[in-house]
Every structure is written in C-alpha cells, then in structure tokens.
Amino acid sequence: MSAVGVPEERWHALPLMVRRAVVAVVVGLLALVVLAPFSGFDPTALYTWLVFAALFVPPWERIRLIGKFIPALGMLGVVVAYPFYASSLYTIPVLGAFPSTNTGVTMLIYAMMALGLNVVVGYAGLLDLGYVAFYAIGAYSAAWFASQQFAGQNPDGSAKRSFHFLAIGIDPKLGGIHVTPWLLLLVGGVFAALIGMLIGLPTLRLRGDYLAIVTLGFGEILPQIARNGDNLFGQNVTNGPQGIVPLDTIGFGNTLHRALGLPANYQIASNSDSLYFWTAIVLVLITLFCSLRLRGSRLGRAWVAIREDETAASAMGIPLMRTKTLAYAIGAFFGGVAGAYYAIFTSSANPDSFQLNFSVFVLVMVILGGMGNVWGVLVGAAFLAYLDQAGLANTGAWLSDHLGLNLDVPKYEFGIYGIMLLLVMLFRPHGLIPEARRKLEFQIGVHDEPLYDEVADDAHVAGASH
Amino acid sequence: MTSAATTTETIVRARRRVSGVAPVFAGVLVTALVVWLAINLEKTPTLFVKAFLIGITNGSVYALVALGYTLVYGILELINFAHGDVFMLGGMMSATFMLSVFHLGTDASPGSLWPALLASLVISMVFCGVLNASIERVAYRPLRRAPRLAPLITAIAMSFILQNVAIAWKGPNYVSLPINMLPHGIVFRIGHDTYTWDALIVVLITAPVLAALVWLVQYTKQGKAMRATAQDREAAAMMGIDVNRTISFTFLIAGGLAGAAGLIYAVYFTSIRFDQGFQLGLFAFTAAVLGGIGNLPGAVLGALFIGLAQSFNNTLGWHAPGSDWTQSIVFSILILILVFRPEGILGERTPEGG
C-alpha cells in the first residue's frame, strides 16, 4: 500500500469492507485492462466479477452463527449451478473457453484424488509416488463387480455366472456380476485402503525417500499386473490391455425415480453430464469434510507432529506405525473412491490410464496448491485438471492462431508440469495458497534431517531460501 | 544428537521384530530361485549360457548408471531421479554425433569406427557431466534448508523436464542407429550360439571406466575429499574442503558415467527413446540399493545381478515369467531388499538403514 502512497497505518484504519471493496475494484479494473485487448468487453465477465465481489466484499463473518459460512455456501451455489450457465460464459484469453460440464466432472474427480493424496503428502509428510495404484484398484473393483467380466461361457454360448444386486438399466439375465455402482464406490475405497495398509505395513518403517521409491515400485507393478492380467495363471482377470468395457450405469432406478423424482439412469438421461457433475460435487464435499475434520482431530495433529519431527512425536507417545498406516489407508480410500467413480463415469477401466505420470500429475496438484491446505489443493487440482483436459490444447490453438507458432502444447504437458513443480519448489515451496504452519516449516526448517547441513551454506544460497 | 540416538533405537527395535520372518522368507525365495535356475541349466544349457552373457552385457550398462546413483546418494543422501534422463540425453547426444557428425553406417571400418567411438564417448561424458552438475546447482543446492521432500520433488521435476527436452529435440519416437554398427565377429561359440564382438566391446569400455572411477575415489586428493564430505560434511568443511565444489564434482563424475553408459546403450542396442532413461534409471537405482547404496563395488555387483535377473527372466524357457513381467520382478526385488535388508548385500548396517 505504501507503494501507491497510502501509509500502512491509514490503510489499516479503514473499515474492513472499504479495504476489500478497494481490492475488488482494483482487481476488476486490472482484469478489464488485461482482457480488453484480447476479447473486447463481455458482460458475463462483469457478472462473474459482481458475484465474487458480493461473496467476498461484505463483512459476512460479522453475522452471528451462519455468517462465516455464507461465502463458502455462496461459492458452493455458484459451482452447483455451473451446468446451467457454463456455455454462456466468456472466453478467457489464451486458455480458451470455460470448461464444459463434462470436463468439470473430471476436474472434480481429480480434485478428490488430490485431496486424498493431500492426507498422505500434505498432512503426514509421506511422499507417495505410486498413488495411481489406488486409483487403479478403485477403477478395477468397480469394473469387476459392474460388468460382464466374470460372466464366463457355457458350451451353448450362454453366460455361466450371473449375479445381480440392485443394478439398474441392464437386462436382469445378463451374465457377470452386477452390483449397484453406489455400493461399488465404497467397495473401491475399502479395497484400496486395504491394499494401502498391506503396502504400508512393511514399508512405512522406511525413511522418506526410500518410502517414495517403494511406492513408486508399487505404482509400476500394479498397472503391469492390470496390463498382463488377461492371462494370470490361466485366468482372465483384467482383460489385459483392452481394459474392461462397458461398465454398468449409475442411477437410482425406476422405483426411486417415481417416488422421489431422483434420476433413474445417468447414462441415458438428457442432462447426463450435469448428473455426473452433481454427484461428483457430493463426493468432493464428503472428502473435503473428512479432510477438514481429520486435520483438527487427534489423528490429524499426530500426522503433523510426525511430519515435523518424527523422533519428538514418538517421544510424546504417538504410535508411529499406526498413525502413518492410517494416513496411508485414508489417502488410499479416497483415491479408490475417485477411481471407482471415474471408471463408472467413463464406463471403462483401462490399464493405460494408470501410469507413473499420473501419480506425478496428482502430486503436482497438491504441491502447486499448497501441501496441507485443502483449499489450495482444490484450486490446484481444478486448475491442472482443466489444463490437462482442455487448457493446454486451447493454448496451443491460441498460439498458432495469434503468434503463428505451430507448437503442439499438450505434447509437452509433463515438461510444463515439471517446470511448474521446479519453480514452485524453488520460489514458493509452500504452494500458491499455503497452510500457515507448512509455510513456517519451509521457512525455518524442520528436524527431519535436512539434505545439507547449514554449515556448508554460502551466503547467496542462505539469502535465496528466505 | 540425542534425537538420532533415539531414532537408532526405535529402528533397531523395529528391525529385530522383522528379523524372525525375514531369514526364513529370504531362504525360501533364494532356494526356489536356485532350483529354478538349476532346472533351466539342465534342460537348456546353451540358452542358459546365452542368457548369462546377455545379462553380463546389460549389467555392465546398468553398472555405469547405478554408480552415478550411488555416488550422489553417498554424498547427499538424495535419490537423483533425473539421473536416468541424463543418461538418456547422453545416448541421444552420442547417436547424433555418430550419425550426423561422423557419418557412421553399418559395418564401419575399424579405422573410422574407433576414433569416432572415442570422440563420442568423450563428448557424451563431458556433456552429461556438465548437465548433471548444472542440475545440482539449479535444482538441489537452493533447497538445502528445506525438508527432505523438497529436493526429491525437484528431482522428479527435472526428470520430466529432461524427458521433454528430448521430445522437443528428437520427437516422441525411437532414435535409431544403424544395426551392426559395431563389429559382429564371433569371439567364441557355445553350442549353436555365438558371443560376438559388440557384446565384448561393451564390457571392454565399461571395465576401464570402472577402474578409473575406483582409482579416482580411492587414490586421488579429490576422491579423498569426496569420501570425507560423504562421511561428515561439517567436519570436512572444517578441514578446509570446499564442500560445494566437492558436491559439484561428484555430480560431474556421476554425469560422466551416465554419458558413457548413454553412448554404450546407443551403439549396442541401436535405438533409444525419451522415456527409456527413466525406466533404466529405476532399474539401475534398484541395482544400487541391492548392492548397498553408497557402496561402489556393491553397485556394480547389484547391476550385474539385475542384468542377469532381467535376461534370465526374458530368455529362459522353463517357467520364466517373460519380458511382460520384467518391471514387476525388478521392482519386487527392490521392495523386498528395502523391506528386509535396506543396507543391501554389501552395505554396512547403519542406523538409517542405508
């Protein structure tokens, strides 16, 4: 503030609302100046700005009891209503149009995965480079129990096995196991959590970087099993590189549809994308709620203690193995649910989508947003998922249209993430929206044996790290 | 330092709990492996010997890369994920020089082959060494005071950046060299199979490089500084060793080894792709862990072991899982070693387990 000639004290003496209003107006004007040469004036941009100003400028928190929830609820309303106005929004320069509802579903699922990984990496400080394994487990458990994978074949060509449990939208005589996908979300999560514990029990004793390499190993082994699983001791378990398609559709069935008006079948509904979108919002909200409650709980505080100083935490009576394993299992659970939901959404489980790249992708979401801070992670996940799904391709198109550069931007996707990761770690290691405590750890250091001793620091480097 | 003592105690106690199961489990595994190998040897002796020789050749390449991991880990306790990609860029660099500068083709005459090979070796080693040292300067050194996670994450970031540099430079497909660039004359015969000169050349290039490295670390002043820094940076600094320079030098040497491996890989396997470095790097890291990370002879031994494991798995006929499962097998070895004997075959038992 002093930079523009307003003394610091005088600025702080102004009422809160005035201060926020000034910030909002300045941001709006800046946006106008930046955007105008690209796209001209667009009224929807003004509306967007007005909605955000209405949510964040008035001092809502002064209202008793409900006040502090108003901005969050307002944001939630904006997100829930997204499918209704998505197509009429303005075009962002360079990045292109706002994401479609279909892209929105993917963004939400990735956000859920990032929140799950945040429990492991952000809260407990365990670097997991094989998170994609849990995503794969979730996807395959949905695929096994909601498809014709295990139908088998009688000599006359009919299906050998057929098991149905509350499945909707399919022929009741269809072979294979068909359990309602709602249950499978839970099954995928529990299954992933169990495998997570199984992996965690022998390996969590290892020090941080060894743990990273072991998880990376598991992240490579499990997809290879999925890829070669069409002939596992003579059994076709995963249908190999083709993957398992199609999966059953999700929905509430005709009975509930008539009684409560809930959608009967997502796949054939006219607003299919919106239904998937809203369901994903519910899943993300559950994850978010669990993350926030866990953070403040006894367990959450134990995780932070372990992250900061394992020895001291142990001395204070925190059972290291149990606490770490729980972090691992809970993170895996959310990854599994997200994987199951993604498999149901895309109606397929394919081994090619479970690569090391994806683990790193989710890790970049967590780090970019700010390890440990769920809001930062949400923003990071949504942004990167958008880049992955549409943003990079749009950027490439914009570059070739306006600058004549014929650059295949999505080809360099992971290079771009690598540069992001590097820049964030070097210049803002606590992420874009950091958690206060995590920020302090990066500023004043922790006791987990830093890589170099401080003695060897030269003045230049010591200056740069602050 | 009291905290370190407590950690030691916790870990020692944890180790003791495992130790009841581990020897039995390891014993069963090793016995099964030996029986499997013996049956294969009895059924198809020539195939077995062929697989053995392939394994030694592959293992030599792994050894060069694994030594880079071990050197860096020894001095910084950092897994340099970008190391495999440095190796890959070295291979691309060599391929470019062999093809575009020296214009080598199939069955090049010894007079043109050897000078070109040596020149490419030097260029590749210098290029990779400088690249590796610059990576340390840019991505690891500024993160000294940060939590341990931070440099590990920048290492992964560097790895992805280097892969994309390769994509931008050579495209996403294989870069191919002419097959039979190296002489394919027969050194000796085993039954119907032959051991050819190109495989021998790989071992012939690797061995002097390894010898030079051992000499450097054991008998030169710089090597002494490296060992001192690895043992205790603080004390080394007090003795007048320039710790930063020593670390840079270690990265330079590690990169040079990766460059040599890159050249050998390019001319022996005659094709290289942007993502092969990471894969091979992980195998080599497994080798380094297997031999006891930080331990130079251990890395070579581990690399030979991994090379043999891979070739036996891919080549042998009787109940071999086949090349579809190579990754799973190598990573299973890695996980088993880390869980049951993190100090490796030749490593000493240290409190940190590495």
Please provide a brief summary of the model:
The complex is a heterodimer of chains A (466) and B (354). By secondary structure, chain A is mostly helical. Chain A has helices spanning 8-13, 16-39, 43-56, 70-80, 82-85, 101-123, 132-145, 181-203, 208-228, 253-260, 272-296, 298-308, 310-315, 320-346, 356-369, 374-403, 413-427, 436-444, 459-464, and strands at 91-92, 96-97, 146-147, 162-165, 176-179.
How would you characterize the overall build of this protein?
The complex is a heterodimer of chains A (466) and B (354). Chain A has 466 residues and is mainly α. Chain A has 19 helices and five strands. In chain A, the strands form two sheets. Chain A has a three-stranded mixed β-sheet with strand order 3-5-4. A two-stranded antiparallel sheet of chain A has the order 1-2. In chain A, a hairpin with a 3-residue loop joins strand 1 (91-92) and strand 2 (96-97). The longest helix of chain A has 30 residues, at 374-403. Chain A is globular and about 85 Å long. The two termini of chain A are 22 Å apart. The model of chain A is unreliable at 449-466 (pLDDT under 50). Chain B has two domains: 1-43; 50-340, Orthogonal Bundle (ABC transporter involved in vitamin B12 uptake, BtuC), CATH 1.10.3470. In chain B, 74% of the residues lie in helices and 4% in strands. Chain B contains 13 helices and four strands. Chain B has helices at residues 2-19, 22-43, 45-76, 83-101, 110-140, 149-170, 197-219, 221-231, 233-238, 243-269, 276-291, 296-315, 326-340; strands spanning 175-176, 186-190, 193-196, 271-272. In chain B, the strands form two sheets. In chain B, strands 1-4 form a two-stranded antiparallel ribbon. A two-stranded antiparallel sheet of chain B has the order 2-3. In chain B, strand 2 (186-190) and strand 3 form a beta hairpin. The longest helix of chain B is centred in the N-terminal third of the chain and has 32 residues, at 45-76. The two termini of chain B are 19 Å apart. Classes of the chains: A mainly alpha (466), B mainly alpha (354). Chains A and B meet through helix 9, helix 13, helix 15, helix 17 and helix 19 of A and helix 1, helix 6, helix 9, helix 11 and helix 13 of B.
